[in-house]
Amino acid sequence: MLDNRQKKITIAIDGFSSCGKSTMAKDLAKEIGYIYIDSGAMYRAVTLYSIENGIFEGNNINTKELQHHINDIHITFQLDPNTGCPNTYLNGVNVENKIRTMEVSSKVSPISALGFVREAMVAQQQKMGEAKGIVMDGRDIGTTVFPNAELKIFVTASPEIRAQRRYDELKAKGQESSFDEILENVKQRDHIDQNREVSPLRKADDALLLDNSHLTIAEQKAWLLEQYKERTRV
Questions:
Q1: Distances in whole angstroms, Cα of residue 207 to Cα of each of 54, 171, 229
Q2: Which residue stretches of the chain have pLDDT < 50?
Q3: Beta carbons within 8 Å of 67's beta carbon, 6+ residues apart
Q4: N or C: which end of the chain has fewer CB within 10 A?
Q5: Do residues 114 and 66 make contact, with C-beta atoms less than 8 angstroms apart?
Q6: How far apart are CA 10 and CA 137, in angstroms?
Q7: 24: Cβ–Cβ under 8 A, 6 or more apart, which residues?
Q8: Separation of alpha carbons 201 and 195, rounded Å
Q9: pLDDT of residue 23
C-alpha cells in the first residue's frame, strides 16, 4: 500500500459498460488505501429490487410504483474478508451475485435513466464521499456526482472487446451466455447511456481519456498510479 499521509482526494472513473472500470477502481482503491464505491452496483441493486417486487411488467417499468418505494431502497457496501473486495448489500442482504446476472444487465439502463432514481442514488453517493479518500466508478461521477473531483478518468474500449470481457467473466462464474446477445446488450446500453435526458454518459472536460482496448492490467495500473501520485503531491 502507498504512503497514506498524502492529501486525500476524490477519484472519479467514468466510461462505457464492461470497460473494466469496477475492477480497475477496486484495485486502485486497495493499492492506495482508499474506499471503493461501485455506483453501477447501486443501479443494479435498484433494478434487482424492481424485478423482485413486481415493478417490471414485462420490459416496462411501473415508474409510479418505483417512485413510491425509492426511499425504501438502501444500498451499502461491506468488505468481503475472503476476497478483500466490497460486496453490495440491498436493504441489509448481500446481493453481489444476483445483481451481475444477464436479467439485471438487460434491465439496468432504463432504470438508471429515470431522473428520480438517479437523484436518490446521487444523494447516497455524495454522502458516502463527503470525507474524500474514495474511488468511485460509474457513468456520471465526474460530471454530476463529484464535478470537483481532483482526478477524473474516462475509460473506453471497442464494443467487441467489452463484450468478450463480459462473456469471459460470466463463463468464469459458470453462467451460460451468448456472445452475440452480450454484444447487442453492450451496444444497447451505450446508446441508452449516451442519450438519456438525465446525466447522460459523457467525458467531463477535465477528465483524462483512457482507451484500455489493448492495455494489459499491469500497464493500466501503472498509468493510474502515476496519475494519482501527480495529484497528491503536497
A1: 39, 33, 16
A2: none
A3: 116
A4: C
A5: yes
A6: 11
A7: 13, 137, 155, 212, 220, 221, 224
A8: 8
A9: 87
